[in-house]
Design goal:
With 273 residues, the protein is mostly helical. The chain has two domains: 115 residues; 157 residues, no CATH class. It has nine helices and no strands.
Length: 273
């Protein structure tokens, strides 16, 4: 399976390079080449994920390699959905680059299955995992859109109608797409937390155990709930929403990496899903 993994990384890297070429040249045919490479990488990535699932009979998010890999897969998959609706071609560069980075980091760790304790495959657990990862993927895209918004806004405010102004979408489109990403991510994360709580009740006899990962996941949910509340009641749009989307994604990164590695230092191993 390693050749497929290497090929997937190469396809993502090539897609990043070609999307960068589109960003500079703005030639549509170059964009479609980059998109085709991203699709090919995604299909190879699906093969890797399917192989891990078949060989372990567990959803492949049980070690650092598998978790990073599935995160990259989710981000690319969610990108395809939002790109179909909003036609944000420039987001392809962000997505391909992020997927490449995640897979390059994942490649440094063993891909083999690491056993979990008292966890069996069932519909609730699978739903919980998929929903949470897809929700986080949507938040990752919202971050990329937020960065694009700030760059475009700065170009307009400084009347520098040059490089970024000509290559980035309108502020209205970016704001609308960013809002859609946050709403989708929040909905998916909510479903994920609910199914996770029900699963915990069925397996361990309690909905909530105050595990650090549970606490930080709940805090992430509250952050995005606050963002949506302020957006729809106070009218947070544009710059404020973009900045909050970026901060929210940084918070998610800490939730995953920071909490896990803090727990690793305390328990001596990386926390399993």
């Amino acid at each position: 399976m390693e050749p497929v993994l290497i090929f997937t990384i190469i396809l993502y890297l090539l897609s990043s390079v070609v999307h960068a070429g589109y960003f500079f040249s703005r030639k549509t045919e170059i964009y479609y080449i980059g998109l085709a490479l991203l699709i090919a990488g995604f299909l190879c990535h699906l093969v890797i994920t399917g192989y891990l699932f078949i060989t372990t009979l567990k959803f492949p998010v049980h070690n650092l390699f598998q978790t990073l890999s599935f995160t990259g897969l989710a981000i690319v998959g969610v990108f395809f959905l939002f790109n179909y609706k909003f036609k944000l071609k420039i987001l392809g560069l962000y997505t391909a680059s992020l997927a490449s980075l995640l897979m390059l980091i994942a490649y440094q760790f063993p891909a083999g299955h690491m056993p979990t304790q008292n966890i069996s495959n069932n519909f609730l657990l699978t739903s919980h995992i998929i929903m949470v990862f897809l929700g986080n993927a949507a938040f990752a895209l919202a971050c990329g859109i937020g960065i694009s918004y700030l760059l475009q806004e700065n170009a307009i405010k400084t009347k520098n109608h040059g490089f970024f102004f000509k290559r980035l979408p309108s502020l209205n489109l970016l704001d609308t797409a960013g809002q859609a990403c946050v709403m989708a991510g929040f909905t998916l994360l909510t479903i994920g937390l609910i199914t996770g709580s029900v699963y915990a009740k069925l397996v361990w006899g309690r909905f909530w155990s105050w595990d650090p990962k549970e606490v930080w996941s709940a805090l992430a949910w509250l952050f995005y709930a606050f963002l949506l509340h302020e957006r729809f009641t106070v009218g947070w749009q544009g710059r404020k929403a973009a900045i909050m989307s970026i901060i929210g994604f940084i918070f998610l990164l800490f939730t995953f990496f920071g909490v896990n590695f803090l727990l690793k230092g305390h328990h001596g191993q990386f926390t399993q899903w």
